[in-house]
Amino acid sequence: MAEAYIVAAVRTAGGRRGGKLAGWHPVDLAAQVLDTLIDLSGVDPAMVDDVIMGCVSQVGEQSTNVARNAVLASRLPESVPGTSVDRQCGSSQQALHFAAQAVMSGTMDCVIAAGVESMTRVPMFTPSALPQKNGMGFYMSPQIRTRYPDIGEFSQFTGAEMMAKKYGLSKDALDQYALDSHRRATIATREGLFKDEILPVEVRLADGTKSGEMHVSDEGVRFDATIEGIQSVKPLQEGGIITAANASQICDGATGVMVVNEKALKSMGIAPMARIHHLSMIGHDPVIMLEAPIPATQLALKRAGLTIDDIDLFEVNEAFASVPLAWLQATGADPSRLNVHGGAIALGHPLGASGTKLMTTLLYALKRRSKRFGLQTMCEGGGMANVAIIERL
């Protein structure tokens, strides 16, 4: 079977809700990423076989196949198709998996895996908030309710609390992790460590104002974060320890990577950034929901013939601080190798765009540190997790 290589990767800097990306239609923001991937790789746009784009809230401006709409808003020719993927928070990581599988199979040679989410313009939970009538319109079907009779609704917030309790994590531990995320992101931002991976885009405010200012830094980083400030934020649930301060930030953004096989490398004359060493995913308990990255990582390492110590850098999505902390505890990974430039608590979590966002950051972090193996995983709604292991070249 052919190998899969990543030849280009880019992301926008994260925008806060109502912030510097609020005036961008998500389709046009995603199109900026597609155009930049073409520029970075030097690939003939007509040679792109497909665009696979992750997006969670596929309604409104993100409906009607946001991937195809992004292609039509970009410089890619009409001959390039596009399809949209929803694997919840892992949507664009799944787009990467699909892209890699396509080029490895030889059915395609060059595929863009991308993601977009405007959480300002299409708020979280919008798809599930559609009108319900006479017991109809709710995703929890009668058969699901029969299988899970004590669960009114699957909740990531409840899952985060369950994770903290199961792994004996205190609020102090979660708050300290959140502070560390902001500190790592602060250092990375101030030292320009994100510069190569960020696509500058014009600031467009919610009222459509074009300021002429370029958005080049993640808007959610709190450079003056203190433990006292983080500890002062009230829990999201009564009696809980999960707060808005130790959870990921609502975020607008678009990201993408270009994936090719060896045939394309030779014919297009391009150099790879990394080889995709392993891909896998699992389904897990949908009630605790967020625990899946732990068994998924263990399974991936076993299948890849690697140990946790063989991996140089990890990106584990900081949906809630309890997730990476539990993951560290269960896997025995070196904390100094985890989310080395901060994570979603500081940088934001643009839902369907986060998979390729984390991969982009991982690629450039490996390059900067001259390291070899990187592993990315993230928890996903419904109790799932993807794992990708890459080898920097």
Description:
The chain has a domain at 276-392: Thiolase/Chalcone synthase (Peroxisomal Thiolase, Chain A, domain 1). It has 393 residues and is an alpha/beta fold. The chain has helices at 26-41, 66-73, 91-105, 142-147, 156-166, 171-190, 227-231, 262-268, 293-304, 322-331, 344-347, 354-369; strands spanning 5-11, 50-54, 82-85, 110-118, 201-204, 210-215, 252-260, 274-283, 313-316, 373-380, 384-392. A hairpin with a 3-residue loop joins strand 10 and strand 11. It has a 9-stranded mixed β-sheet, sandwiched between helices. The protein has a two-stranded antiparallel ribbon with strand order 5-6. Helix 9 crosses helix 10.
Q: Which properties best describe this structure?
A:
two-stranded antiparallel sheet; Peroxisomal Thiolase, Chain A, domain 1; 393 residues
Question: Helices and strands in order, then pairings?
Answer:
Layout: E1 5-11, H1 26-41, E2 50-54, H2 66-73, E3 82-85, H3 91-105, E4 110-118, H4 142-147, H5 156-166, H6 171-190, E5 201-204, E6 210-215, H7 227-231, E7 252-260, H8 262-268, E8 274-283, H9 293-304, E9 313-316, H10 322-331, H11 344-347, H12 354-369, E10 373-380, E11 384-392
Parallel strand pairs: 2-3, 2-4, 9-10
Antiparallel strand pairs: 1-7, 1-8, 4-7, 5-6, 8-11, 10-11
Helix pairs in contact: 1-2, 3-12, 9-10
Strand order of the largest sheet: 3-2-4-7-1-8-11-10-9
Total number of helices: 12
CATH topology of the domain at 276-392: Peroxisomal Thiolase, Chain A, domain 1
| Low-confidence parts | none
Number of strands: 11
Helix/strand order: EHEHEHEHHHEEHEHEHEHHHEE
State the secondary-structure class.
alpha/beta
CATH architecture of the domain at 276-392: 3-Layer(aba) Sandwich
Query: What's the shape?
Result: globular
CATH superfamily membership of the domain at 276-392: Thiolase/Chalcone synthase
CATH top-level class of the domain at 276-392: Alpha Beta
Distance between the termini: 19 Å
Mean pLDDT: 96
Largest sheet report? 9 strands, mixed
Quote the beta fraction: 15-25%
Helix content: 25-40%
Nearest-angstrom radius of gyration? 20 Å
Active site: 89, 349, 379
EC number: 2.3.1.16
InterPro entries: Thiolase, Thiolase-like, Thiolase_C, Thiolase_CS, Thiolase_N
Family: Belongs to the thiolase-like superfamily. Thiolase family.
